[in-house]
């Protein structure tokens, strides 16, 4: 899968896991014991998010790439 959505990846001391957030896809998150596992899990969750949105007839946001926050 070719991910074009921005991924925000950080270590959660509380969860003892890497957390991946996909800000362009509301509620889309994944985790993993390693950085690589978290990204792989995010790829799966992104695909599932898109498939679910399609089944529900919802709009799928176009990837914008890097998001900038003020």
From TrEMBL:
**Mind telling me which Pfam families this protein's record contains?**
HicB_lk_antitox
Indicate the segments forming the HicB-like antitoxin of toxin-antitoxin system domain, all copies. 8-64
Report the protein name in the record: HicB-like antitoxin of toxin-antitoxin system domain-containing protein
Which organism's genome codes for this protein?
Crocosphaera watsonii WH 8501
SUPFAM superfamilies per UniProt: TTHA1013/TTHA0281-like
User: Taxonomically, which superkingdom?
Assistant: Bacteria
Q: Which residues form the signal peptide?
A: none
Q: Which PANTHER family match?
A: ANTITOXIN HICB, UPF0150 PROTEIN SSL0259
């Amino acid at each position: 899968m070719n991910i074009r959505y921005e991924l925000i990846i950080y270590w959660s001391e509380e969860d003892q896991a890497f957390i991946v957030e996909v800000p362009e896809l509301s509620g889309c998150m994944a985790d993993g014991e390693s950085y690589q596992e978290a990204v792989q899990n995010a790829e799966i969750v992104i695909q599932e998010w898109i498939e679910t949105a399609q089944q529900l007839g919802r709009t799928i946001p176009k990837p914008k790439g890097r998001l900038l926050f003020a």
